[in-house]
What we know:
By secondary structure, the protein is of the alpha/beta class. 46% of the residues lie in helices and 14% in strands.
Amino acid sequence: VSWFVLAYILVARRYGLYALVPAAAGTHELRLVIQSSLTAGLLLCGTLYMFHAVGISRILIMLLVGTATVTLCIRRAFWRYARYRQYEQGIELRNVMILGTNQLGYALSRHIRDYRRLGYRFVGFVIAPGSPVSGEISSDQILGGVDKIRHLARQHFVDELVIAEFYPTESVIRLVQDARELDIDVRAISGYYGEFSTNAPVEYLGIFPVAPLHRREPRVIGLFCKRVVDTVLSLLALIFTAPLMLAIAIAVKLESEGPILYVSDRIGKRGRVFPCFKFRTMVNHAEKLKKDLTALNERDGVLFKVSNDPRVTPLGRILRKYSLDELPQFINVLRGEMSIVGPRPPIASEVEKYELEHFRRLEVLPGLTGLWQVQARHDPSFAKYIALDTAYVENWSFWLDLRILIQTANVVVRGTGA
């Protein structure tokens, strides 16, 4: 069984079943699943023959392969259905930018917008010098020139650039080099750059055949493990802290007038807005009093922090000191809007003041805790705040998360979270 599972994973990976780019159609994906399962079964039979494992029943092998094939097909069908539901809600879509303002580029953009189940979100067009602009393309759909592509890719959280008109080969080489640094995919309509994609398989973006010119290396296994850890730990945290959270909720309600939870819209991964939950630690309508405290702000840049903030209730000070006010955010983690470790989610007014390099911190899920929280929480420097979050995004690993969690536990126990 173990050998069959390993063989299936290797074959399925070779067929692109674990790729980040969505498959063209459900029937095509199921065909690849069946082909992968049968190929893994043949490899299993070949291995048994080589090792003369005559004691193993061939009927048992056939049952294993048949059952696995059916089970995998059902799982893939349910997974695709769930993924379609996410796409319809605008979740986990790949942001696509099109280089080319001709009729072909316009047709491709319409196809992406009309068929959300493809898993793409059309961001806009990039125009090359001297290129004609189709009369059907409005000016607000043109993001800028190709010389601004690095800026545009960061600003719009672009996952993929599709070349829909012929662009000089030397310029395409530079685009691919930029894509490696920006960590984005580059594909071109088939037939434009055959010399770059001689051995590459033809892919489809909907009904449009495309050839990959650059493919980023996905960290699928690492991100999957991170999500599993987030789900398990958030479930355990919600179960074991339920009595404590109930006591806090009652205390918050009895102490002052207002709701138990403070819910604010935060900016998450790739600019997605989500409701962030916290126990209320301030008096009701505290946001309206914020402008009166602007002169007392102790942080620079877009951050806001006032020691002995008069809006904070006595109970709120205790909750903040031990970070107990953030316990409801485990719900956000369970819902997939946050991770346990990551940059803190900013509010929209902060993001509006971001410069280009600051958007790097929004390329991952925000977290309950992160490098800044454990290393420089009381540092007023906005530059240090950005530098630590950017360092986390660029150097993320499972072991870095583990180290941050251990340091966070030390901060909570010492009560230095306020």
